[in-house]
User: Which sequence fits this backbone?
């Protein structure tokens, strides 16, 4: 076990140094490799390129046209109290151009701690925030008109607070956060307040995040035709459900979900994976503490990769229908590991 | 005695009686928690014309994620023991709600950690519990080993008033051991910016080896400087940690200098655009972080070393 850990770490360092060194001395070569990987999904007309570096690969996010780094920096938990604020610059230098944060009501202080970084790099990165549209309703309930109106008002109030905390007048996208109720997804009241905010120049694109009842939520989002982005809780073994802190009951595997993900992409929705490795994480990080839990899913190519279990899970979801993956990174070690996974996932194409 | 004198004497006697009564009320409230369960007590605080939505719930480390989702790992990192949650809804307008969450963090240090990390420095402070602040109509309080959050659906004056009343009642019924987190006293008060001190249990400054760390902001020559202190089990452990810090700076920064200033051994880390200056003293590791002016960083770190008392 000790030996395995040592080998894994030494791979990380070696691989990271190799990537960075290659970028420094042979930038164009690796850049070509990165770009050739991104050709898969770059057919749309207008493409937005920001802070693209040879140390990262990029993928177009649905109809937004934005070429997002395949690793999204999940700032919410990491920036609470400002503890990981230093990682932002390092992430930026490595070519991460997509920063995802959340309302102060949820991730206290994170938006404020992101603000100085944005001030320096606003034109070079995409920034997304999100807030819950709170309703007292269960996943399967149909929300009432009054509930929808209240949820919409609450959500836009938090959007305004986000802009203030981020010290910006515009975010590239704003999500309905942690949605589990399809009737909320289909609420015209909520969509209309988004359109109003968009018309006012506060936000560019509409999205949602979901990790409970996610399949139904994504299907509802596809049917409305309103959503540009969906951040979904998904693992190599299928849907991840926060309400059980486990895989969703009777979930199909990620391979079996390709049809649904393809439909989402055809609807112009950019797909962002989240919670891809949470199940593997230790208990205090809300996982099951079993890094081998997805091993039965992987084919030989992934099994024989030098990735550690966390990197392998990230790389796998990136190679199976997710445009990009959002990771909560609270220290430099995890940032490095995830950069390697995102930058080299395409070597294990299926 | 003059009339004014008699009046003053009666006034002060009256004030004394009032203070005694107030203290008795607070004391009796705090005894409640010993004789009743927290949910029972909280139910008794339901505002007039409001009702409890669904039921009062309690969460343990194993299922806290059900209520607070991804933020659960933040509270678990501070060793949360139990969380009591209730949502009150307005009986007349059910769209209005006030959510109350009471986190039992096991120790005042852990409770201070989550409170201080979440705190908005600019938010108006509240004279409730050990420390508290208001943000819109939301209230956040640290009381002993408890962290209390009162979140309102709208930032109206009415909800702010009801939320504040609720926050006060809840806080007064929770016991406080008066144990002080060590770093609050260890970090010097001089030039410290009010309400800037934080306790970070893991991953301080994004470093996986920096745990049990207090951080605070200081105003030095018109510049904000972040200072930190971290305590280890032994002086040897602190020294090893300092070496790890230097290795970290070597890897991610642009160079490390070891220097001696006024007899104090310092490690100056060029982080590329800013400097960390770090030392160890006994089982403490301390220093300043992300200071643009190297000279200022060295001076403040030296002062910090000189002001530290070893326990």
Assistant:
């Amino acid at each position: 076990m000790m030996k395995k850990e040592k080998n894994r770490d030494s791979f990380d360092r070696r691989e990271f140094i190799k990537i960075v060194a290659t970028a420094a001395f042979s930038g164009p070569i690796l850049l070509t490799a990165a770009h050739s990987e991104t050709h898969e999904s770059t057919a749309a007309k207008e493409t937005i390129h920001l802070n693209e570096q040879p140390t990262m690969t990029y993928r177009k996010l649905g109809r937004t046209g934005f070429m997002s780094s395949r690793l999204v920096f999940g700032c919410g938990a990491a920036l609470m109290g400002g503890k990981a604020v230093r990682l932002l610059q390092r992430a930026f230098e490595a070519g991460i151009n997509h920063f995802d944060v959340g309302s102060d009501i949820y991730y206290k202080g994170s938006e404020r701690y992101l603000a100085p970084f944005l001030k320096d790099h606003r034109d070079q990165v995409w920034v997304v925030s999100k807030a819950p549209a709170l309703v007292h309703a269960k996943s399967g309930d149909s929300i009432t008109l009054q509930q929808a109106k209240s949820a919409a008002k609450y959500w836009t109030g938090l959007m305004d607070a986000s802009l203030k905390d981020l010290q910006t007048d515009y975010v590239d996208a704003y999500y309905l956060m942690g949605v589990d109720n399809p009737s909320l997804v289909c609420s015209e009241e909520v969509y209309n307040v988004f359109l109003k905010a968009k018309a006012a120049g506060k936000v560019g694109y509409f999205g949602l995040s979901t990790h409970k009842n996610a399949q139904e939520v994504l299907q509802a989002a596809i049917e409305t035709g309103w959503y540009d982005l969906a951040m979904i809780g998904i693992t190599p073994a299928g849907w991840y459900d926060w309400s059980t802190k486990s895989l969703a009951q009777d979930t199909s595997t990620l391979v079996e979900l390709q049809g649904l993900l393809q439909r989402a992409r055809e609807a112009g929705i950019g797909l962002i994976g989240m919670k891809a490795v949470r199940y593997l994480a230790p208990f205090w990080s809300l996982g099951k503490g079993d890094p081998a839990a997805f091993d039965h899913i992987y084919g030989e190519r992934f099994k024989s990769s030098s990735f550690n279990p966390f990197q392998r899970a990230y790389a796998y979801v990136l190679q199976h229908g997710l445009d990009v993956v959002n990771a909560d990174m609270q220290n430099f070690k995890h940032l490095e590991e995830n950069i390697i996974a995102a930058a080299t996932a395409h070597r294990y194409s299926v | 005695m003059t009339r004014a004198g008699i009046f003053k004497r009666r006034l002060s006697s009256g004030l004394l009686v009032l203070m005694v009564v107030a203290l008795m009320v607070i004391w009796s409230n705090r005894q409640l928690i010993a004789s009743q369960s927290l949910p029972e007590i909280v139910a008794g605080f339901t505002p007039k014309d409001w009702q409890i939505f669904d039921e009062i719930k309690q969460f343990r480390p194993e299922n806290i994620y059900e209520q607070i989702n991804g933020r659960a790992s933040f509270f678990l990192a501070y060793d949360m023991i139990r969380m009591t949650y209730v949502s009150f809804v307005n009986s007349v307008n059910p769209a209005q709600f006030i959510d109350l969450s009471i986190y039992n963090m096991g120790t005042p240090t852990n409770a201070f950690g989550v409170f201080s990390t979440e705190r908005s420095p600019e938010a108006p402070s509240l004279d409730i519990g050990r420390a508290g602040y208001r943000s819109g109509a939301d209230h956040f309080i640290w009381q002993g080993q408890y962290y209390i959050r009162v979140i309102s659906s709208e930032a109206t004056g009415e909800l702010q008033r009801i939320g504040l009343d609720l926050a006060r009642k809840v806080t007064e019924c929770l016991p406080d051991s008066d144990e002080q987190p060590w770093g609050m006293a260890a970090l010097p008060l001089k030039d410290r910016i009010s309400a800037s001190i934080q306790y970070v249990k893991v991953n301080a400054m994004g470093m996986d080896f920096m745990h049990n760390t207090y951080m605070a902001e200081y105003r030095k020559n018109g510049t904000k400087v972040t200072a930190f202190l971290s305590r280890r089990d032994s002086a040897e452990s602190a020294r090893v940690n300092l070496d790890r810090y230097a290795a970290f700076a070597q890897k991610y920064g642009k160079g490390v200098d070891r220097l001696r200033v006024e007899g104090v051994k310092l490690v100056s880390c060029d982080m590329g655009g800013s400097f960390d200056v770090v030392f160890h003293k006994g089982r403490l590791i301390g220093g300043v972080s992300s200071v643009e002016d190297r000279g200022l960083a060295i001076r403040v770190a030296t002062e910090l070393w000189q002001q530290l008392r070893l326990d």
